[in-house]
Amino acid sequence: MKTLVSPSLLSANFLDLRQEIDMINDSQADWLHMDIMDGSYVPNISFGFPVLNAVGAYCKKPLDVHYMIEHPERYIQHTADAGAMLMTVHQETCPHLHRTLQQIHAAGMKAGVALNPSTPLCMIEDVLTDLDLVLIMSVNPGFGGQKFIEHTIDKVQRLRKMLDAAHSHALIEVDGGVQAETAPRLVKAGVNVLVSGSYVFKSTDPKGTIAALKELKG
């Protein structure tokens, strides 16, 4: 399977968001990753539905919406109405995870689950066949530009084996510290979707950087 690239809007220039979205539209990016934070589950606040709705109406790429918030189930229909293709929730915030995944699917979206660096893979063992995507956090959630956590490589390799054993078609996505040195190793370990923020948006040639990431093969 080809490597998918989902640039993270969190690292974009918010003073010129239209130009940033134009770049994404004209690039080889597959999706646009949108990190929504509430200042409670993570120690940061990013953006909410006014931005999500505006970007959804203008961006030509599928929206990959990642909720780093408490009670994400409250916003499933809002997210679908904004045009999201995929809604990812954190396992740590969903006591009734299976129900939440069902509700996301019922709203017409693909369903993903994110795991923090310290959350073991066994926490999603019983929903592997209900998932469209597993997002492995390779930094602690809340801020962009953090250093990649090396343990992520081993975690991805173990997750790939779990998904194969369960006959799950879920994609593996990684978010945090994805750049020239880490991206090839992640793809080789079994990652399908690379989320990259600063490495893409701060690049002197963002479209070229996206194209280079897409060329990586496992």
What does this protein look like?
α2 links the parallel β2 and β3. This protein has one domain (4-214): Aldolase class I (TIM Barrel), CATH 3.20.20. It has an 8-stranded parallel sheet. It is globular, with a radius of gyration of 16 Å. The protein has helices spanning 17-26, 49-58, 76-81, 97-106, 151-165, 182-189, 198-201, 206-214; strands at 4-7, 32-37, 63-68, 84-90, 110-115, 133-137, 171-175, 193-196. Helix content is 33%, strand content 20%. The chain contains 8 helices and 8 strands, in the order βαβαβαβαββαβαβαα. The mean pLDDT is 96.
What spatial form do the alpha-carbon principal axes imply? Answer: globular
CATH class: Alpha Beta
What is the total number of structural domains?
A: 1
Rg estimate, integer Å: 16 Å
Cα(first) to Cα(last) distance is 9 Å
Which topology does CATH recognise? TIM Barrel
**CATH architecture descriptor text:** Alpha-Beta Barrel
- Name given to the CATH homologous superfamily: Aldolase class I
Tell me the number of helical segments per DSSP (H or I, 4 or more residues long): 8
Largest sheet: 8 strands, parallel
List the helices and strands in order.
EHEHEHEHEEHEHEHH
The spatial strand order of the largest sheet comes to: 1-8-7-6-5-4-3-2
Uncertain runs: none
Helix content: 25-40%
Number of strands: 8
- What do the pLDDT scores average to? 96
Structural class: alpha/beta
Q: Report the sheet-strand fraction.
A: 15-25%
